[in-house]
Amino acid sequence: MANxxxxxxxxxxxxxxxxxxxxxxxxxxxxxxxxxxxxxPGTGITWKAQLEAFAGIGFRAIAPDMPGYxxxxxxxxxxxYCQEALVEGMMALLGDTSRDAAIYLRLWRLVFLFLARSQL
Length: 120
Description:
Blueprint: E1 8-14, E2 19-26, E3 33-37, H1 48-56, E4 60-64, H2 83-96, E5 101-106, E6 111-116
Parallel strand pairs: 3-4, 3-5
Antiparallel strand pairs: 1-2, 2-4, 5-6
């Protein structure tokens, strides 16, 4: 049976317009929100199978191109890649979904993280 899940391209601009995160999204916009975060040397499309699978069971599944990768901003500013800057980008992405919380999954370290804007 062919998969009929639609994966769409999006972007969010933040940091006073200096930075952009490109992301892929699939599934109902009102479904539980899950972000799939790639590691080196991947991009958001690394998670295509997971986007389709989770969208298929009702999740809003999102996979960004992390800063410096794919279609996201890649600047030669070392501070753009520190943890604080990465969290700033993920919070901008969360804000773009008009949600307060999401499940973040990053396979690189097998870390599962629940992050809510109200906790920061």
